[in-house]
Design brief:
By secondary structure, the protein is of the alpha/beta class. The protein has helices spanning about 15-25, 40-45, 60-75, 90-95, 105-120, 125-130, and strands spanning about 5-10, 30-35, 50-55, 80-85, 100.
Length: about 130
């Protein structure tokens, strides 16, 4: 199975967080484009660089929600992952992400959640059992 491209957006003030996330994703076989600002993410999305969008909370709930909405418009088959850091601030964009994972799970947890989602999406469904 060919793995989709990952667009990783992080506003963490510590750049090592973004580097570590990218390293773990790359070691797992993903091509990674890392950005540190919403405008960089918006450019990548509007250029059609789809696949998987991994984002952490931004300064504004609306800008995060807007990026998830934009991703779904430009990349309807894409997978969005929201890395939750604060349970109380996550309700607006939590609804728009395909996967939500707490940052305490770290980069390996993000990769595990992506692979679990991808496995579920390619497994055949027995429609006779779902009726």
């Amino acid at each position: 199975m060919e793995l989709p491209r990952v667009l990783s957006l992080s506003t963490d003030p510590d750049p090592s967080t973004l580097r570590e996330r990218a390293r773990v994703l790359q070691l797992s076989g993903f091509e990674v484009v890392s950005v540190t600002s919403p405008s960089q993410a918006q450019l990548e999305i509007t250029m059609g660089h789809c696949g998987i969008f991994v984002a952490c909370p931004l300064l504004s709930e609306l800008s995060t929600a807007e990026l998830f909405r934009m991703f779904k418009i430009h990349c309807p088959d894409g997978l969005s992952v929201f890395v939750i850091s604060d349970e109380t601030r996550s309700s607006v964009y939590r609804q728009q992400a395909d996967i939500q994972i707490h940052e305490s799970h770290g980069p390996n947890g993000i990769v595990a959640a992506i692979f679990a989602h991808l496995r579920r999406s390619i497994e055949p469904t027995n429609w006779a059992e779902t009726a």
